[in-house]
Amino acid sequence: MARTKTIYRCSDCSHTVAKWVGRCPECGTWGSLDEAPLQPAAVASRAGTSLARAGAAAILPTTPATPLTRIDGKETAAKSTGISELDRVLGGGIVPGSVVLLAGEPGVGKSTLLLEVVHRWAQRGADDRSLYVTGEESAGQVRLRADRTGSVHERVYLAAESDLATIFGHVEQVKPTLLVVDSVQTMLAADVDGVSGGVTQVKAVTSALTSLAKASGIPVLLIGHVTKDGAVAGPRSLEHLVDVVLHFEGDKHSTLRMVRGVKNRFGAAEEVGCFELTEGGIVEVSDPSGLFLQHRNEEVSGTAVTVTMDGKRPLLGEVQALVVHTQNPSPRRAVSGLDSARVAMVLAVLERRCNIRDLGKCDVYASTVGGMRITDPSADLALALAIVSAVRDQPVPPGTVLLGEVGLAGEVRRVAGAGRRLTEAHRLGFSRGVVPRNTEGAPSGMKVREVTNLGQALMNIG
After folding, report:
1. Is 50 exceeded by the pLDDT of residue 48?
2. Which residues belong to the annotated binding site?
3. How far apart (Å, rounded) are the C-alpha atoms in residues 320 and 383?
4. What is the pLDDT of residues 364-377, one digit of tens each?
5. Which residues of this UniProt protein bind ATP (predicted)?
6. Does residue 93 share a domain with residue 225?
7. Has residue 392 been placed in a domain?
8. In whole angstroms, what is the distance from residue 189 CA to residue 169 CA?
9. Backbone phi, then psi, for 302, in 5-degree steps?
């Protein structure tokens, strides 16, 4: 008889180690390792014996494998949610049997958005019923929000439950075509150890809901919490279990909200949908470029316009800079909406390659308009011209859009999708463009000047 071996298993993440330690090396939880017996399996000494035993122990499947040509792909075609901006991020709509995780900070509008989704879903037809399960609020609280946002419908069913088995019972009774769970961290599986929101519980609940979606074909939308660093709360395997991961982003000082795709098995990732959170609910913004531009009648120094790419969508953004002489031996570098490392690099290139002196003796403030976050290197040229415009107190000519990545040698490099960027700028009334050399796809009617280095680009100021 084989000798019993002892291992130690973490009660939070189920990670096993051979010896007891005070802290789990996988999830970092203290005092979570418990002793567990392990019966080692018999190991065959020869490969032939292993194959023979594997064949003898094989179990014939109840459902045989089906040739790929016989599988009907129309049954898994995406269905529209009724919200075009969300459909854009999802890749055309919700795929039957898929599991979508929507994560975001508290108060950003996750529940409001999905309440609008179940309302639009119920309006599709008499056979479309949606079930909204909430473990964070009471049924009365959800009804108040539905009244305020106009999301009340007779085919929207509401259940204030946190027990997983009871939720499955509601699914059997209602037979919905869409299930929303708010949130996955508040659900509890009674037959699984751990507290609600713990690593073990979150994995078990998500696995059970995923199995439900695949077996029944009901798409499931999960609301998830995020950590203080902005990552999805819970185990990393949570993102592997679901089909789509969306991040709901927004500044508490702004009404603009953006749904960004992080993982998508049915479409392109990094797509972005734009919304505006108002007192009457959440409203989709189909043309958000105007939100990131400051419309003014007079010319102002220290501003420049660029075009960034969020997924496949070109967005116009305005970069502003302010340069002020200071007596402080350590000048300030205040950055908002831009990458501070790239701002510091552009300042160094301007001083070293373009002979823009005394930047090291000035406070420099750089920001974007409308709460836009720009990490695209193609905004380097707009940032550089905004800084020089502020130093010289000479505005960039109106109607000019700037595209290009700046290198350490002062060269201006090409950017991807320049044609689509310039077309979007021309649609919004911009008539001039400063772009890197050999840029193709410029729209007819737009005057484009190609530059090879930052010095040539600076000639467009004044």
Report:
1. no
2. 104-111
3. 8
4. 999 998 888 898 99
5. 104-111
6. yes
7. yes
8. 13
9. 85, 15
Percentage of residues of the chain with pLDDT beyond 70: 93
Indicate whether 211 and 92 sit together in one domain: yes
Task: State the DSSP H helix or E strand holding residue 261, giving kind and residue range, or none if neither.
Answer: strand 256-264
pTM of the model: 0.78
Indicate whether 221 and 332 sit together in one domain.
Answer: no
Q: Is residue 264 domain-shared with residue 356, that is, in the same domain?
A: no
Is 369 found in the same domain as 269? no
Which residues, 6 or more positions from 434, have their beta carbon under 8 angstroms from its beta carbon?
A: 381, 385, 400, 401, 402, 403, 404, 448, 449, 451, 457, 460
Q: Which domain holds residue 119?
A: 82-286
The total number of structural domains in the chain stands at: 3
* pLDDT score at 339: 95
Residue 75 lies inside a defined structural domain of this protein: no
Q: Give the percent of the chain with pLDDT over 90.
A: 59
- pLDDT of 288-327, one tens digit each? 877 788 777 778 999 999 999 987 889 999 999 999 999 9
Q: Quick one: pLDDT at residue 354?
A: 93
- Output phi, psi for 295, to 5 deg: -85, 120
Q: Is the dihedral of CA 130, 134, 138, 144 positive or negative?
A: negative
Segment 151-170 mean pLDDT: 95
Measured CA angle at 352 (ends 349, 357), to 5 deg: 105
pLDDT greater than 50 at residue 406: yes
What span, in angstroms and rounded, lies between the C-alpha atoms of 254 and 370?
Answer: 8
Query: For position 131, which CATH number holds?
Result: 3.40.50.300
Q: Do 298 and 280 share a structural domain?
A: no
Closest by CA to 256, choosing from 224, 294, 288, is 288
Residue with structure tokens 């929207």?
156
- In the predicted model, what is the mean pLDDT of residues 12-18? 79
The annotation places the binding site for ATP at 104-111
Are 306 and 447 in the same domain? yes
Please tell me whether residues 124 and 272 are part of one structural domain.
yes
